[in-house]
Amino acid sequence: MKDKVCLVTGANSGIGFETAKSLCAKGATVIMVCRSLEKANRAISDINKEVPGARTYAAIADLASQASIHALAEKLKAEFRTVDVLVNNAGSWFSAYGVTEDKIERQWAINHLAPFLLTHLMLPLLIKSNDPRVITVSSDSHFHGKIHFDDVNLKNNYHGLRAYAQSKLANVLFTVEFERRKRATPIAAYAVQPGLVKTDIGVKHTISFHALMWKLRRLGGKSPQKGAETSIYLASDPTVSTMSGLYWDDCQPKVPSNKALDEDIAAKVWELSLAMCGVEDYFSITRNPEV
Ligand SMILES: NC(=O)c1ccc[n+]([C@@H]2O[C@H](COP(=O)([O-])OP(=O)(O)OC[C@H]3O[C@@H](n4cnc5c(N)ncnc54)[C@H](OP(=O)(O)O)[C@@H]3O)[C@@H](O)[C@H]2O)c1
Fold it and tell me: What is the pLDDT of residues 8-41, one digit of tens each?
């Protein structure tokens, strides 16, 4: 991974921290997207203890804010010529309904639209790489998910699990549709199921009952280091570039849900996401295979 530049969101904790640390250990320069400089510096200091001389770069953004994602992208375009690997790892789980400054339900905004928009904005740097990859951390929770096109913010039907599953289904649909739309653009895209991982995701923005449930559930989970293995594999293994558009678990492709493979749903989510992010389709093509 020497000379590679990897961008990891949510790099200060859990799976993202382990992903960033391991990519540093492989010699990559890792851009660590965190919510504050304090969190980024703490994570960088922890990485340096284990990987002396790690090449890190702190990038600050609130992925719940589209303005902040645009500002992040502008800064990175000014500072880097190329990004080889984008790991869309950051994610959140909220017990209560709430909307972002863009008036979008928080899990849909952070877990799905942020990766969608950041990938879109990073494309000019990714296409300069000779082996560009986009990895989006999804979850087997997507098997329970459905895209609520009539109320994607779930304003009238909110439950944390429903919103989470919807957003994680959108992560797989994004990857599958990315593959369909990219045509000859040589960028690989992967969706990842990290497994059940002992992190604090279920205690950060949850009511005490949900936090307790998560604490019990994660007892049976794996370490963040193990949970990061598939992301690290997809970021660094030389043989997987050709295996794009798939869902991965334990460093192997896995068949996702039927809804995740539904072309009409995927195209609809893509168009909806373009509209909600206010951007043009970066591949600027139709899905017509004749085109
Ligand atoms: N843990 C599991 O069992 C599991 C299972 C399946 C999938 N996943 C997925 O794995 C990914 C990583 O989660 P994790 O379990 O490692 O949880 P985590 O330790 O809470 O890590 C989540 C990361 O995302 C960041 N983040 C959340 N909202 C953000 C925002 N608005 N702006 C910027 N950064 C933000 C967090 O920053 P802060 O520290 O500032 O909150 C943190 O760095 C998520 O996409 C999650 O859905 C996890």
Answer: 999 999 999 999 999 999 999 999 999 999 999 9
pLDDT tens, position by position, 198-234: 999 999 999 999 999 999 999 999 999 999 999 999 9
Query: 3-class DSSP state for residue 7?
Result: strand
Strand pairing report for 5-9 and 29-34: parallel
CA torsion sign for 214, 215, 219, 222 is: positive
164 tagged catalytic: yes
Has this prediction a pTM greater than 0.85? yes
Q: One of 57, 97, 158, 164 is an active-site residue; which one?
A: 164
The full set of domain ranges for the chain reads 5-277
Domain range 5-277, CATH architecture: 3-Layer(aba) Sandwich (3.40)
Cα separation of 227 and 211, whole Å? 20
Residue 89 CA, ligand 1 centroid: distance in Å: 7
Q: Which tokens hold the place of 121? A: 């904005």
